[in-house]
Amino acid sequence: MNRIETDIQERLIAIERERGVKVLFACESGSRAWGFASPDSDYDVRFIYTGPASHYLTVHPLRDVIEEPVNAELDVSGWDLRKALGLLAKSNPPLLEWLDSPIIYRQDEGFVKRFRVLARDWFNPNACRHHYASMARHNYREHMRGETVKLKKYLYILRPVLACAWLERELGPVPMRLEVMLDTLVTNKSLRAAVEKLLELKRETPELGEGPAIPEISAFITAEMARLQAEPSAWSAASRPVTELDQFFQAELLRLF
């Protein structure tokens, strides 16, 4: 275990001790989990926790998010289990991505196994596509202007664009790692070569700045954005009974308390 991993474990232990909570699952989210971290990228640690029993026996609900002070290396935050289950009811894509993270810092194996089964049952591809299409449109408007671009922003547009294609092909929940989607979805050799070159540059450069637009990537993104615009996504609520989530929540609290 290296220094930063030790720091992360110590931070999780401190959170449990100082706030009286239990961390059930903690993982890496963001560029390190997506597979294109820069040498100076920070660590985005995300976790699911339960509070003490008293937190769930109050007239007024207590805060259900823990957000630690951010520094140059660590960005640590978590969701209470009840909040996580409420988001799961909406097939929240970031939460689903956490469960596919290649970097796990802490897990109650029994809980995680049960939660993954529940997440699979509540996975809603239409809701997820709506999320990723909105993200792609926002990033495209913000970062694809003019003849020069912030090169790393290509990846923040490319990822949700590919996520939409992944969902349209009915391949299941969107994988955390970008290269899994590239391997499955990108068959154009010149496009793949351009993306690989950009990924290598991103991984090797501490602060990847602006540069000339990359024709192969720009053309692909522009075409995909036009297609997404022509085929707007519609969010649809899950049809499963919410009592499933209530029963899961109650069973986990009884097990822990």
Account of the protein in words:
This protein has 257 residues and is an alpha+beta fold. It has helices at residues 3-19, 31-34, 81-88, 93-98, 109-122, 125-143, 151-168, 178-185, 189-204, 215-230, 243-256; strands at residues 22-29, 43-50, 65-67, 74-80, 104-107, 148-150, 210-212. The protein folds into 2 domains: 3-123 and 238-256, Beta Polymerase, domain 2, CATH 3.30.460.10; 125-230. It has 11 helices and 7 strands. The strands form 2 sheets. It has a 5-stranded mixed sheet, with helices on both faces. Strand 3 and strand 4 (74-80) form a beta hairpin. Helix 6 (125-143) packs antiparallel against helix 7. The chain starts with a helix and ends with a helix. The mean pLDDT is 93.
Query: What proportion of the residues form beta strands (DSSP E)?
Result: 5-15%
Compute the separation of the termini in Å. 31 Å
Taking pLDDT < 50 over at least 5 consecutive residues as the criterion, the unreliable ranges are: none
Radius of gyration: 20 Å
Helix content: 40-55%
Q: What pattern of helices and strands is seen along the backbone?
A: HEHEEEHHEHHEHHHEHH
How does the helix and strand content classify structurally? alpha+beta
Could you say which overall geometry the principal axes of the C-alpha atoms support?
globular
Can you tell me the number of structural domains? Answer: 2
Number of strands: 7
Figure out the total of helices: 11
What is the strand arrangement across the widest sheet?
A: 3-4-2-1-5
User: Main beta sheet: strand number and arrangement?
Assistant: 5 strands, mixed
Might you state the CATH topology name of the largest domain?
Beta Polymerase, domain 2
Overall pLDDT, averaged?
93
CATH superfamily of the largest domain: Beta Polymerase, domain 2
> From the 3D coordinates, which CATH architecture of the largest domain would you assign?
2-Layer Sandwich
Q: What is the C-level CATH assignment of the largest domain? A: Alpha Beta
